[in-house]
Amino acid sequence: MKVVIIEDESLVAESLSTSLKTIRPGIIIECILGSVKESIDYFKHHPQPDLIFSDIQLGDGLSFEISKHIEINVPVIFCTAFDDYALEAFKVSGIAYILKPFSIDSLENAITKFEHLKIQLTGDMAHQYEIAMQALASYKLKDSGTFMVKYRDRFLPISFDKIAFFHIEYEISSLYTHTAKTYVIPETLEELEKKLGTSFFRVNRQFLINRNAILEVKDHFPRRLKVNLKIPFNKDIIVSKEKRKILLDWLQQ
Is the peptide bond before 101 cis (omega within 30 degrees of 0)? Predict the structure, then answer.
């Protein structure tokens, strides 16, 4: 079975690839694509595989956008962090999905389902994409999800609401949880901003902060703001006068 993975989180893609080969040793991972644009370009010049595993939200848009440019004629299994309620429409439209962090059992069940149903599902994917897109149109896609971090020899899923803030220093990015645990991550703050939702705010060049991690905001001379966090942190977090109003408006939303 030939498989293409569409996933912009490299750690998640690697973990998924390894798990699929464990479940079905005969699986061939033809390609790992990281964006809507890259996927469109790839499928324009390569034959479609037997099966696609795809994240829903990519850095440059929703993976559903691919079907507006390329006619997808093979089954797709979505790997997503959205909850079951938000994805009820997928059951109706026939699209299978697995929730992150996925398990070997959930992958096995999804593959087995598609092995049984791929004849009926193949050829109608564009219509199913449209139904799914409409169902998620009003859902706050980026405000819920899971961030994968590599810790020693393990991949750890950390939900967005467990993350207090991200900090970069000496070109090293770190993730801090509300329980004061710290993990070094490969992404830049610019990349993280694209993946996270309105619950996070880039207060300056070094900090991307979750609203729920902020204890208080104080005036700081001249016309700046100082952010105090709910967890101990030994560096001052200063907001420029240019961002002062934007931050206050964001906190009031």
Answer: yes
DSSP bridge pairs for 2 = 28
Residue whose structure tokens are 């890259």: 38
pLDDT digits (tens, 9 = 90+) for 80-110: 766 554 555 455 445 667 777 788 888 888 8
- Segments forming the whole domain that contains residue 217: 143-252
Q: Is the same domain home to 19 and 112?
A: yes
Strand pairing class (96-99; 146-151): unpaired
Both 195 and 76 in a single domain? no
| pTM of the predicted model over 0.70 | no
- The SS3 of residue 250 is helix
User: Helix-strand-coil percent breakdown of the chain, rounded to 5?
Assistant: 40, 30, 30
Q: In this structure, are 158 and 120 located in the same domain?
A: no
Give, as one character, the DSSP assignment of residue 181: -
